[in-house]
Each structure stands twice: as C-alpha cells, then as structure tokens.
Amino acid sequence: MKGILFDLDDTLYARESFMQSGFAEVAAQIADSWRRNRGALLTTLRQAHLDLHQGREFQLLCLEHRLPLSLVPLLVKTFREHRPRIALTLSVRTLLQTLRQDGWRLGILTNGDPGVQRRKIDALGLLPLIDEVVFAEEHGGKPNPAAFLVATQRLRLRPTQCLHVGDDPIGDVAGARAAGLRVIRVLAPPEAGACAPVVERNGRLPEADATVDTVLDVARVAAQVLTESPDVV
Predict the structure, then answer these.
(1) pTM greater than the 0.70 cutoff
(2) Which residues contact 74 (CB under 8 A, 6 or more apart)?
(3) Residue 113 DSSP symbol
(4) Is residue 27 within 8 Å of residue 38, measured between CB atoms?
(5) 42-59 pLDDT, tens per residue?
(6) Of the candidates 87, 111, 114, 177, which lies 20 to 30 Å from 140 by C-alpha distance?
(7) Burial class of 154 by CB neighbour count within 10 A (0 to 12, 13 to 18, 19+)
(8) 119-to-14, 145, 190, 193 alpha-carbon distances in Å
C-alpha cells in the first residue's frame, strides 16, 4: 500500500488565482453598495497586492476610495466567504487520475480556515479525484506532526507508506519529515511553468527527499522516493 498527501495552495493550484477571485468579489460588492467604479477598485486591490501590502489591501482600498475604515471587517468576511472562481488545470486533474489508477491512495492536507479551504476544494472539483481531505487547523496545523499523522490514518496507511507533496519548507517539508513521511517539495504552482525563487528561512531549508519544478513532475519521481521504505508493498 502507498499514499500521497498533497498540500493545496500553490501546490495543486496557484493561490494567486484565489486572491484575484476574492478581490473581484470585494470590488463588485463595493461598486454596488457605494457607487464606486468597479474597475478602479479592482485595480487598487491588485496594485496594493503587487506592492507587497499583503494583509492591508482592504485598508488601502478604503483610504484610496474615501470609504470608512469600519468597512474592513465586512470586506474581509466577503473575501473569505465568497465562492472562489478558480479551476484545476487539466494537467493536474490527469495527474491525480493517473496516480489513483497506479494504486496510490491520495489525500489533501491543507492549512488555513477550514471553511475557506473547503470552498476552494469544492470550486476546484477535487473531491472525486482524491480519497481523503484533512484540514490541518483542526489538528494543530502544519507543521505540527499530529496533522500529518491524522491524514495518514485517514488513508489507512503508516507514515512510512506515504509521501507528502508541498511547497512550503517549514509547513510541508519540516512537518512531514517530523511525522516520518518522505517529502517531495514543489518549487512553483502548476500554472507557473517555471521554478519560483527559493527563499531561505532561518538561514537553512529543511531537506526534502526530492525537489521538482511543479506537482506535474510528481508521478515521475514518487515511486522512486518511496522505494526505500520497507513498509511499501
């Protein structure tokens, strides 16, 4: 038996598409309620995001368009609770189907608010393609090893029978290694088509068992990475 746990954001799809979907929803809400230009609102949000003001986009939006700052909690709620307009690429869908046909049990282990993450998974149409979903925040959050162990138990596998695939060197790589899983690290989301720059944290990155450009390369290396485990049959 063998299994693969996948991170969600920036592993199976590009989280940036979710951000842009949320910005569009917020811009539409303000345009309808406050008679502002929707295109101008969206431009402000996107520019604030590009200018590395992550987490303060809505405050800057209110200042730029003469809106009360008391609106910010409502805008955050709209962003978090909207139904995302995001899609899984055909290549990722085919990858997951192929892995299951090859005998892999597949799961998703994702950080973040479970309600938000559940809406992402629904919008991406992932449920028919995998066996289990575990919301890490309900089990201590990644990199807590407990979250990984819950996920392997849901797949009815031992940690040594599982790979974890993710982009984050701490949440994914260090967390999975601490739980006894082998790890494949992806450097960019599937839509990117090229490696993202690797940013070191605390001066050193935990080592993955393999590193690939995107999740689309996982099928090529997964079996080899897991071969050394004596529990894989």
Answers:
(1) yes
(2) none
(3) -
(4) yes
(5) 999 999 999 878 889 999
(6) 87
(7) middle
(8) 15, 25, 20, 25
Question: Phi-psi bin for 141: left (phi > 0), alpha (psi -120 to 50), beta?
Answer: left
Say if 107 falls within a structural domain.
yes
d(CA 148, CA 158): 11
> Which residues lie across from 162 on neighbouring strands?
3
* Both structure tokens of 34: 């406050």
If one counts every other C-beta atom within 10 angstroms of the C-beta of residue 142, the result is 27
Report how many domains make up the chain: 2
Residue 33: give the domain boundaries.
16-81
99 within domain boundaries: yes
**What is the percentage of the chain residues whose pLDDT exceeds 70?**
91
* Same-domain status, 21 and 8: no
